[in-house]
Amino acid sequence: MAEPSPRPLGARRLGVCAAVVDGACVSGDVEVADGRVTRVGLPPSGSAVAVPGFVDLQVNGFAGVDLRTASPDDLRRLSIELAAHGAVAVQPTLCSTSIDGYRTALAALDDARSGSLPGCRLLSAHLEGPFLSTDWAGAHDPATLLPFDEEVLDVLLAAGEVGMITYTPELDGATELVARCIGRGVVPSIGHTDATAAQTRDAIDHGARHLTHCWNAHRRFAPRDPGPAGAALIDPRCTVGLIADLVHVERETVLMTLAAAPDRVAVTTDAVAAAGRADAAWAGGAARRGDGTLAGGLATPVDLLRNLVDIGCTLESAAVACSTAARRLLGLEPATLRPGEVADLVVLDDTLAVRSTYVDGVDVLDG
C-alpha cells in the first residue's frame, strides 16, 4: 500500500464542510499551504463552505473611497474593506473625469500597488471612458467624453497600469483603438454605445472581448435590432458584464443572461463610494443622480453571490459568475480551488456571510 503523502509544512485547514471546486460541490474540508490549495475532500469541519474568491471588473469606489480622488492610503483601506466582503481582486474603475484626472488617479493606483496591500489585489485599472457615446452617457458627465484621439489614448496608457478600456465601437477610429489596446495588453470592452449588432460583431472580430454592464447604458435590444447585448450574448469570444444588484437589472433579466451565456457572465457591483458603508441602505439599494439616473451600484461583492442564490442559481454557478469568468478574461491564474492552484478563496458561513478571505493563501481578515 502506498504511503500517504506528507502534510506540507505550514499547511492550514479552512474548517469547512464543503467547497465549490472547479464549478462542482465537493464535500469535506480544504487545506492550503505556501499560497496554494493542497488538498480538498478532507474530513469535514463545521458548517461553512469555501468558494473561489470574488473578482470584480468594475469598482468605482467603496467604503467612502472614490477611485478618482483616492490617495494611496485610501486605496490600502479600500483593499481591506473589499476583502471583508469577499473580493480577492478588483479592477479599479475610473470614469467621468478629465485627462489630468485619469493621470492623477492612475499614478495613485501605481503608488498603492508598489507597496504591500493589506487586502484584495488592485488590478490594472479599468478606464470607463473617455471614448464613449454621449447618447448613452448614463451617469457620466458628457463634458468628459471625447472622440477617439490616438494621442489622448497614448497619454492615458502611459500614465499608469491600465488593464481594460470601455469604448464605443461606432466612433471614428475605434478599430485603431482596439488594435492599440491589444498591442499593450489592454482588454477592449464595448459599452456606453449606440452600436448595432453588426457593429458589435465587427468590434469582436477585431478583438473586443467584453461587454460592460450588459443591458445598461447601451442601445436597447429589439427583435430586429438586438444591439450589443444580442451580439455579445451569442458570441463565445465575449465575456458579458452584468450588474447583479437586482436594481440595474431585474431577476428575470439576470437569469436570462446567465442562461444565454453560461460560464461567460462576469457579475459586477459597479460599486461607488457609498457602497459598503453602514448608511448605504438609505438609498434603497441604488445610487442615483438628481434626475433619477442610476449612477453606480451599492451592492458588495458577497451581495452579488447571495442575490444569485436567492433568485434560484446554484451556489456552484453563482461562484463561477462571481470569479471564474472575470479571471479567464483578464488572463489571471486559475483559482477554482483545485489542488495546486493559487489559494484565492472565500469562506462563507451558513448564511453566506464572509468569514474569511484568503489572498495567495493568506487570510487577510485574520488580525
Walkthrough of the structure:
- It is built from nine helices and 22 strands.
- The protein has two domains: 12-50 and 338-363, Urease, subunit C, domain 1 (Roll); 54-330, Metal-dependent hydrolases (TIM Barrel).
- Helices cover 28% and strands 25% of the residues.
- The mean pLDDT is 94.
- Strands 7, 10, 11, 12, 13, 14, 15, 16 and 17 form a nine-stranded parallel β-sheet that branches. A six-stranded mixed β-sheet has the order 3-2-6-20-21-22, covered by helices on one side.
- The protein starts with 11 loop residues before the first strand and ends with a strand.
- It is α/β, with parallel strands linked by helices and 367 residues long.
Strand content: 15-25%
Helix content: 25-40%
The shape is globular
Largest sheet: 9 strands, parallel
Task: Count the beta strands.
Answer: 22
Name the CATH homologous superfamily of the largest domain: Metal-dependent hydrolases
- Domain unit count: 2
Mean pLDDT: 94
The value of Rg in angstroms is 20 Å
Which stretches of 5+ consecutive residues score pLDDT under 50?
none
Q: Distance between the terminal alpha carbons, to the nearest Å?
A: 43 Å
CATH uppermost class of the largest domain: Alpha Beta
At CATH level 3, the topology of the largest domain is TIM Barrel
Give the CATH architecture of the largest domain.
Alpha-Beta Barrel
Count of helical segments? 9
Structural class: alpha/beta
